[in-house]
Design brief:
Distance between the termini of chain A: 28 Å
Number of helices of chain A: 14
Structural class of chain A: alpha+beta
Number of strands of chain A: 25
Largest interface: A-B, 56 and 55 residues
Shape of chain A: globular
Strand order of the largest sheet of chain A: 3-7-8-14-11-10-9-22-25-21-20
Helix content of chain A: 25-40%
CATH architecture of the largest domain in chain A: 2-Layer Sandwich
CATH topology of the largest domain in chain A: BirA Bifunctional Protein, domain 2
Oligomer: homodimer
Strand content of chain A: 25-35%
């Protein structure tokens, strides 16, 4: 079965697609650029949703749902926004058999429709802040698509908040970047860089875009989440005003922030290996699989023992037994490895006799026997250990592949030969940024928030710089 | 605040809209026929989803996600299906700035795209059954829309299963009608009639449509969920075949089943009163609200007592304290009543002194004092009691408004004067069914599954009938 997957060394890009398809996370659909999320991929997304939703609610947000179809004229109300999104829209021109007076776009993002409602709901400072999140599908007409990483339709959440002051909106935008970073670290076992996007990479319509950036195993960067301070741009476009306590009318200050099913792609590329998926235990739909091993005459006894283990460990552990007939244990091992299940318990007649099970980790190492009586305490600890190991390995990769660089020549060869993040000085000029992108395909991933001030000279023009920024080739 | 709501007696239809808007379940959007689901409506839907999703998983189903946009030609592959749905479609003709070679319809339902994938995934009897559910948004171009009950876009779930045998598919379709009925009864406190749709009311493309039908307070029926045995109609249209154990190629047997955000409308209309929403405790986002009552000097002490109650009862009970300043208790009482919160606990200084809180039920009756020390046991019991009372009242309404009738004249006057369900004989002829609909606006809601055989004469033509069927005017 492992042969269905190209090795990473041979072709990283094919390896990724093979893993997604063979592990049955997703499949191509007959609709150009759209994928089908299969049950394993969906269960993973649901686990991500559940964790994120809890974090959103803990920070005071509520869920709501806004229309999928948006009048085309709404997009035009914010100048930068329409420039960014109009070329990516799917447009509904006919409905119920007749041509529409005004075309409707399938939402590429929901700022416009949401802020048109906020204009109706927000009257007074007493109505603020409004802290709303939406779980939804969006469509962006992409030319080159890749499963999870860039698809025409994807699932995501989009938070949209309105505040009385600029400072509060700024604090919210930074807070949500922090929520994403915590989620990536604690659930995805994925260390991220935090920072601000350059003007060129900013969300269309935002004043400032905060982001988290992760490193994949091929040393390319992946933007994992963004959080935008929208200032009063949309408030002015949609007349979202409130009466202050002093009785004056003011525009509100907005933020928006989102992560998408792209995170599943990040998870695959951050932890997977040549055998397939490797899932962090906190998100794995199945954390433990029990594989009974027996001759036909021993079937009843061994299957019963496997069932007892499942019963003992549920629901604290997400566990299932693979009791399929007509499938050899070795085949089952490979299949569950490919699907990324963190732990496998093997039970055979001899194990039962000695009151134990044999434990194998997805991440390798010697198989070890564990007494049946201590499984309920040992397994959760092992799962936490694996979670930490994955984070540790990814952190090591991140720090080992983040390099300061001072000359443009060194930069060019490092981008080409090593990849990873390059910490370089930049003059904040759009021309230098564009030249680097043009010549090396590397972009500014983010300007670190907490980067210590350091005087230096721009990589390209030699102009003065006060801090280094992160460059990388990215997905 | 209660004056914002028209009374049911004055205008039931306006009452419904007033409740939905004033309780902030939903709002009109600037997009024709599309609504915004506000946080209270969304929290209600999430509670419904959670309960249903658990029931689907307990019956072996998994979630997946299929594309929103479907090639127009797919709809045409099943003759009845396209006749039913093509006139209702929103059509995407342009994407990424160019005209598409083939238009894409925004899914009105997903049989076609899903069964095209099943054709790829299903090869052998070992791949069956496939038991998949999808939570999604769908769009149907409706001329007359009403909040929750009939909107152009709505949220729903759609189950799609494939089986090796006709009997298994039939069993699945009946099972899922049963799941819906159990959910309506146990969570929504809504008794339903179960049965089969007549040919005229059947889902476009189905062999048999099972349904649950509920009665609203204005004595109109509302279809609350449907479950379709699709036979091999879609399997043949999409070439979904499998190799049997004996090595022969056979078409699979499919079912599909769904419920939608329409259920929120049903909930409002089944239990609401002239003060607003009445929510069954098992689904209420907030089950208990604590309202502290104090003079300014007593503030600290009373608010602290309210906070202690919230802490003591969480998370077993979904409870919150309303500690807003500048809002009188009476105003708070009205607001939480309008929002349907099942129980209110009032705490003032005198309550604290006597170690109690005063409990008021949303459904009425005298306020009663309950010792603070016994709240944690008393409140969950009260909530269960209210849940039962709501079901009891709705059951009484259903049985009191279900009447056997034998002559068409009596039928006509009963439909006009009383409404409710009318149990009448019918010859199974489409002409008689159409005549009743034309002349009385009543339709056959369902043919009961377990209706005792009873010889009789068709209401309209006098032709022979073997059982009574349920007629009603419906939403």
């Amino acid at each position: 079965m492992a042969k269905l997957i190209t090795s990473r060394a041979e072709d990283y890009s094919r390896w990724y697609t093979d893993v997604v398809l063979q592990a049955q996370l997703a499949d191509y659909s007959p609709v150009r650029g759209c994928m089908v999320i299969r049950p394993l991929g969906m269960a993973l997304w649901e686990n991500m949703q559940k964790a994120l939703d809890g974090m959103f609610k803990a920070t005071g947000h509520q869920n709501a749902y806004f229309p999928l179809l948006i009048p085309e004229s709404f997009l035009h109300k914010e100048k930068q926004h329409v420039e960014g999104f109009a070329p990516q829209c799917a447009v509904v021109t006919h409905g119920g058999g007749v041509k529409l007076e005004e075309p409707l776009v399938v939402r590429p993002t929901s700022e416009t429709i949401i802020y048109s409602m906020y204009a109706k709901w927000i009257q007074s400072y007493r109505d603020l802040p409004v802290l709303i999140n939406q779980w939804a599908n969006v469509v962006r007409w992409e030319m080159r698509t890749r499963l999870f990483l860039r698809t025409m339709e994807f699932l995501w959440q989009e938070g949209h908040t309105a505040h009385a002051t600029e400072a509060e909106a700024e604090q919210e935008a930074i807070q949500m970047m922090g929520v994403y970073d915590t989620f990536a670290r604690d659930y995805m076992a994925l260390p991220c860089l935090k920072g601000i996007k350059s003007d060129a990479e900013r969300f269309a319509g935002a004043v400032r875009t905060y982001c988290i950036e992760a490193l994949m195993q091929d040393n390319k960067a992946l933007q994992a989440g963004t959080s935008h301070n929208l200032g009063q741009n949309f408030a002015k476009a949609f007349e979202v005003r409130y009466q202050t306590e002093a009785g004056e009318m003011e525009y509100v200050w907005n933020t928006s922030w989102g992560v998408s099913t792209r995170l599943i792609g990040a998870l695959v590329m951050a932890h997977g290996d040549d055998q397939g998926l490797v899932l962090p235990p906190r998100l794995a739909p199945t954390q433990v699989v029990v594989v009974p091993i027996f001759k036909e005459s021993e079937r009843e006894q061994v299957v019963a023992a496997a069932a007892r283990i499942v019963q003992d460990l549920s629901p604290a552990v997400r566990i299932q037994a693979d009791t399929r007939d007509g499938v050899r244990p070795g085949y089952k091992f490979n299949e569950w490895e490919m699907k990324g299940v963190p732990l496998r318990l093997e039970v055979g007649p001899r194990d039962i006799q000695s009151g134990q099970a044999t434990v194998a980790r997805r991440t390798g190492g010697a198989k070890t026997p564990v007494a049946l009586s201590s499984l309920a305490t040992a397994v959760p600890l092992m799962l936490e250990e694996i979670q930490k190991e994955l984070y540790g390995a990814a952190s090591k990769r991140l720090s080992g592949n983040t390099r300061p660089v001072d000359s443009y020549d060194d930069f060019k060869s490092l981008v080409e030969e090593k990849g990873g993040f390059l910490l370089a000085h930049w003059c904040l000029g759009a021309a230098c940024e564009a030249q680097v992108k043009e010549e090396t395909k590397a972009t500014i991933r983010c300007i670190p928030l907490d980067g210590a001030a350091e005087a230096g000279a721009c990589l390209v023009c030699g102009g003065s710089s006060t801090r280094r920024v992160y460059f990388a080739r990215a997905y």
